[in-house]
Amino acid sequence: MSDLNSIPALSEDELETLGVLLETEAERQESFDFFAVHGLITGLLSGPLEFDIRQVWDSAFDEQLGFSNDEKSRVNDLMLKLSKEIQAWLDSGQDFPVPADLTLADDEDDEPPLESWAIGYMTAVLLQEEHWYAEHEDKVAEGLFPIMYASGLFADEPEMADIDEDIELSDQMCGNIPAAVIQVYLQLHSQ
Questions:
Q1: Average confidence (pLDDT) over 5-15
Q2: Where are the domains of the chain?
């Protein structure tokens, strides 16, 4: 367990800069927004393979980036700093601080931030699927279930549709995500 006060965190200015740069790029083309990038980094760090920032670039962005060279360098530096913050939280063993309200209920037409975060996380899982499920497949799948639900990627599954029909159950499932992230991380890193 680490001291939560010693976790290296992005400053408000750095968070805002990263958020704005990612949002601008997401509006320019179909790339990941801040929440999806955060989820992707969290998923890659949670997984059994060593973290590589290039996987974030390859998965989150189109080849034709709209970033200037300075912006690309700044985004890379901020994502690396964010990855250190996320790693420290994972190592802390505390419920993971997902950077979004733990609900899919959203009055706007936009994708809820939690759904975007969960899509990013599940992208990491799907990239490394055989490694995630190589050992303890049932326990990993059980731990991932709330994140799978929130991502909407498995909405056609009957059990997901049942949860969608019950707002209280949906919020309860989403509320399980912070503990699920740590559970899965510990399961995959227990050797």
A1: 81
A2: 8-188
65: helix, strand or coil: coil
Nearest to 37 by CA among 50, 26, 49, 48: 26
Sequence-ordered list of residues with C-beta below 8 angstroms from that of 46, at least 6 positions apart, any chain: 90, 121, 124, 181, 184, 185, 188
Helices of type H across 93-154: 113-127, 129-132, 137-151
- 8 Å CB contact between 22 and 37: yes
What pLDDT digit, counting tens, does each position of 77-124 carry? 999 999 999 999 999 989 999 999 999 987 565 789 999 999 999 999
DSSP states of 140-167 as a string? HHHHHHHHHHHH-TTTTSHHHHHHHT-H
Task: For residues 44 and 83, give the distance between their C-alpha atoms in angstroms, rounded to a whole number.
Answer: 9
Distance CA 46, CA 181 (A): 8
183: Cα within 13 Å, side-chain hemisphere:
16
Return all residues near 113 (Cβ < 8 A) that are at least 6 apart. 35, 99, 100, 101
Is this prediction's pTM over 0.90?
yes
Fold observed for domain 8-188: Four Helix Bundle (Hemerythrin (Met), subunit A) (1.20.120)
